[in-house]
Amino acid sequence: MSVRKFRPEDTEAVVALANMAWKPINKVSRARLGDKIANILRPAGDDVSKGITVRQQIAEHPENFFVCEEGGRIVGFAGCSLDFNSKIGTVGHNAADKSCGVKGIGQQLYKAVLAYFREQGMVVAKVFTGLDEAHAPARRAYRRAGFNRSLEHVTYYMEL
Asked: What is the pLDDT of residue 129?
């Protein structure tokens, strides 16, 4: 397993992995919010919405993406953003392919992103995640990676 900077030819594999990884999250979101709100939040549909978002982020800042490979196959990715004013690096959309059978993908990606933050002069790293059961694996992974301080956040919706 190796982690490297993103290359343009990685795009389709990363988009497919994003769509696959967000299926359980989108399922929970739809169940909690209902179809009307879920359809507004993801007008392209649950199966492709995360890939569209990730593709846009790649197009804007490909230098802020990393991929993890195993046997020439992309088994994980992580995006990030840098705020040079506040010196805060934010871990963005990221996913690991659980079906590949390789453990530690996320940890290797976070290690690379955190090293990138340090190289770029960031002094704080942050990451956002949901509090629902679909995000529980992400919360565990972030704690293992060293994220040890948190603020809770709730977003409320209402149909009008």
From this structure: 95
Reported as type and span, the H/E element at residue 3 is strand 2-5
Q: What amino acid occupies position 117? A: F
Phi, psi of 89 (to 5 degrees): -100, 135
Q: What is the DSSP letter of 114?
A: H
pTM of the model: 0.93
45-49 long-range contacts, CB within 8 A, separation 24+? 46/22, 47/19, 47/23, 48/19, 49/19, 49/22
> What topology is assigned to 2-144 in CATH?
Aminopeptidase (3.40.630)
| Distance of alpha carbon 2 from alpha carbon 115, whole angstroms | 15
Helix (H) / strand (E) element for 124: namely strand 124-127
Q: Where are the domains of the chain?
A: 2-144
Task: Report the b/e string of 41-67 with b at 16+ CB within 10 A.
Answer: ebeeebebbbbbbbbebbeeeeebbbb
What pLDDT, on a 0 to 100 scale, did the predictor assign at position 18? Answer: 98
What is 55-97 written as a DSSP string? HHHHHH-GGGEEEEEETTEEEEEEEEEEETTTTEEEEEEEEE-
